[in-house]
């Protein structure tokens, strides 16, 4: 039996099935995302969504959905399902679904009378092309299948509406057609592995409703264009492949291509393999550039997310070559930043003050996982240059003070990972000495000093070690308070007394200025006030401003984003700190905590982890359907557990 399997009782109940989403990707940025019933509930959903660099740097929905209709004895059974204005569903094809599973590829089984039809979907690995294989498992009489595509040709951040500009022209190609709704877009090729009849029947279907956009306070209606439909007969036991992409394909090879691509997939037959598959979805390769997307469906490559996620997405699943490839792109972007030149790399927010230190931390994980010698050979100069850049105060908003601590200005602009803003101002104005930035700074000083002493220059090592000693003393003086936790930030003589999770980094990193007792006190505070089954809260319920529910329009969600919501990626560092203190005796506790994440494999985006959770029960998943840092840190935690066992 499949691990990710949903039976008819779930599939036919839209309250159960619509909140569950699936995500399929390739390595060039294209994706397919929808609900497990194939009813779109977001403007980001679509059968074929891909970047169109000729237009902009956004993703674009070319095909919104594809309806199947089974025809027997002249009677039509439409298997599609769409939500229209006023929460009306038509057609209601979900009632024909017998089961859905996502073992190697998303597979839906439909039963219509005596007809049993299987539908399987996957992306070609390195092509912007989605393949759908239809197999007639059973039928007692002649069966015809009709496929009707709903086209959008729009950015994921916009909607399309009926208009006179959209082109209705199409051309016949091998077993299909090519069409393009608007100038600037590539031609869309829709082809089948079998001869078929394309019936040109252009029309606009109006007022589709996207319930997730309505929940988030955005526009939520659009119209979609249908150029016509493909129709063909299908015999019992026969498989037919539908292909949609921006390049024409030889249709004779479609069946073989689908089989080869399916065989390459790792079965999602357990928790670990689900996360491993999800990890692969964040890799985005364009020519010589290799990026890590922060999440789906709306995030791009953000520098901090990339460096935090990279060890978990690669090293934790024994793929160091992928780490090296992505870090090669990041290295170019970092040097462009250090030298003040415009970069061709599309890595955003690299100027934030903690980003360079997270890059050093990522390389530190590589050194521990692969070898210190290789880390020095590949990245020794890079980490040394980063430390000199910061030591000499060349960063625009990360300043080394006489006491050895790093100081930032976060009053006017959100500069840390807690980066939500409202009305142009940071919701959490973390400014001055920020706890995780200085924990990162101390850790980086000690790590690079060790590399320099082992492979490089002893005088450089001594200089960094001396600075680390000063920084460590000041860290304890500034952040440790009499209640046993750390201030989140200290601005002048004004500390922030809020109990936040950022202190856990000082207990988790390999090098910390804190003693064992201080680390244990931090872990105990996090356990008592911040830990949930779905992650670590961004603010204690006992602190002023606690706002745990990430719901409502944009302003409401911005105010709650870091004010009590729970974040799974913080759990990776919490588990690391916990296991350093309690060692093997802490394994059973950490393993019990991991159950909360395995439960998420069957909800929200199945097989992955969403961006964040509400901080109060029932801890509902919110935000992006699949988030790189969360997947990465739970994978890294899994490796920690396995290493200890």
Q: Can you describe what's shown?
A:
- The chain is built from 17 helices and 35 strands.
- Helix 6 packs antiparallel against helix 7 and helix 15 packs parallel to helix 17.
- The relative contact order is 0.09.
- Helices cover 33% and strands 27% of the residues.
- The strands form 10 sheets. A 9-stranded antiparallel beta sheet has the order 1-9-10-11-12-19-16-15-14.
- Strand 28 and strand 29 form a beta hairpin.
- By secondary structure, it is of the alpha+beta class.
Rounded to an integer in angstroms, the radius of gyration calculated over CA atoms is 26 Å
Which structural class do you get from the secondary structure elements? Answer: alpha+beta
Look at the structure and give the mean pLDDT: 94
Distance between the termini: 28 Å
Oligomer: single chain
Q: Helical content, roughly?
A: 25-40%
Shape: elongated
Strand content: 25-35%
Given as residue ranges, the uncertain stretches (5+ residues, pLDDT < 50) are none
Could you give the count of β-strands?
A: 35
Order the strands across the largest sheet as they lie in space: 1-9-10-11-12-19-16-15-14
Number of helices: 17
Sheet having the most strands: 9 strands, antiparallel
């Amino acid at each position: 039996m499949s691990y990710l399997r949903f039976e008819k009782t779930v599939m036919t109940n839209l309250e159960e099935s619509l909140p569950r989403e699936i995500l399929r990707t390739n390595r060039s940025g294209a994706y397919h995302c929808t609900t497990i019933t194939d009813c779109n509930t977001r403007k980001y959903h679509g059968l074929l969504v891909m970047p169109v660099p000729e237009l902009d740097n956004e993703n674009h929905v070319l095909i919104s959905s594809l309806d199947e209709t089974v025809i027997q004895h002249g009677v039509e059974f439409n298997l599609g399902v769409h939500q229209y204005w006023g929460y009306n569903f038509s057609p209601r094809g979900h009632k024909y679904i017998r089961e859905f599973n996502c073992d190697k590829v998303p597979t839906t089984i439909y039963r219509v009378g005596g007809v049993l039809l299987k539908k399987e979907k996957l992306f070609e690995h390195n092509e912007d092309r989605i393949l759908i294989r239809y197999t007639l498992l059973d039928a007692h009489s002649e069966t015809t299948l009709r496929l009707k595509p709903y086209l959008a040709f729009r950015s994921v951040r916009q909607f399309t509406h009926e208009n006179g500009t959209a082109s209705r022209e199409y051309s016949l190609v091998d077993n299909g057609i090519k069409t393009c709704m608007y100038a600037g877009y590539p031609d869309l090729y829709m082809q089948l592995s079998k001869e078929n009849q394309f019936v040109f029947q252009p029309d606009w279907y109006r007022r589709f409703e996207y319930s997730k956009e309505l929940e988030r306070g955005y526009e939520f209606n659009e119209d979609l264009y249908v150029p016509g439909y493909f129709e063909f007969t299908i015999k019992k036991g026969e498989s037919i492949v539908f292909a949609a992409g921006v390049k024409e394909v030889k249709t004779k090879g479609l069946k073989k291509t689908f089989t080869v691509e399916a065989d390459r997939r790792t079965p999602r037959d357990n928790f670990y393999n689900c996360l491993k598959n999800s990890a692969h979805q964040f890799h985005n390769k364009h020519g010589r550039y290799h990026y890590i997307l922060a999440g789906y469906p709306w995030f791009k490559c953000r520098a901090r997310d990339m460096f935090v996620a990279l060890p978990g997405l690669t090293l934790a699943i024994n793929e160091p070559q992928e780490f090296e490839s992505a870090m090669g792109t990041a290295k170019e972007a970092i040097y462009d930043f250090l030298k003040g030149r415009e970069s061709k790399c599309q890595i955003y927010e690299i100027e934030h003050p903690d980003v360079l230190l997270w890059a050093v931390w990522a390389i530190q994980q590589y050194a521990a996982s692969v070898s210190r010698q290789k880390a020095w050979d590949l990245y020794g100069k890079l980490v040394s240059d980063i430390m000199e850049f910061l030591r000499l105060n060349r960063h625009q908003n990360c300043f080394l003070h006489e006491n050895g601590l790093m100081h930032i200005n976060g009053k006017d602009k959100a500069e840390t990972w807690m980066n939500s803003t409202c009305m142009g101002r940071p919701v959490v104005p973390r400014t001055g000495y920020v706890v995780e930035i200085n924990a990162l700074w101390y850790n980086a000083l000690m790590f690079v000093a060790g590399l320099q002493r082992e492979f490089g220059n002893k005088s450089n090592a001594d200089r960094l070690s001396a600075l680390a000693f000063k920084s460590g003393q000041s860290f304890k003086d500034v952040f440790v308070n009499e209640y046993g936790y750390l201030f989140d930030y200290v601005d002048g003589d004004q500390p922030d007394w809020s109990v936040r999770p950022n202190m856990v980094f000082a207990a988790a990193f390999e090098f910390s200025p804190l003693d064992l007792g201080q680390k244990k006190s931090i872990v105990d505070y996090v356990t008592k006030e911040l830990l949930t089954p779905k992650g670590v809260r961004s603010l204690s319920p006992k602190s002023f401003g606690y706002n745990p529910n990430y719901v409502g329009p944009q302003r409401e969600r911005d105010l709650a984003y870091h004010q009590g919501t729970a974040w799974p990626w913080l759990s990776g560092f919490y588990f690391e700190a916990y296991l350093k203190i309690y060692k093997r005796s802490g394994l059973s506790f950490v393993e019990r905590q991991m159950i909360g994440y395995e439960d998420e494999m069957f909800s929200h985006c199945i097989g992955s982890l969403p961006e964040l959770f509400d901080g109060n029960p029932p801890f509902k998943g919110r935000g992006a359907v699949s988030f790189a840092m969360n997947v990465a840190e739970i994978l890294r935690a899994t490796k920690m557990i396995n290493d200890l066992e």
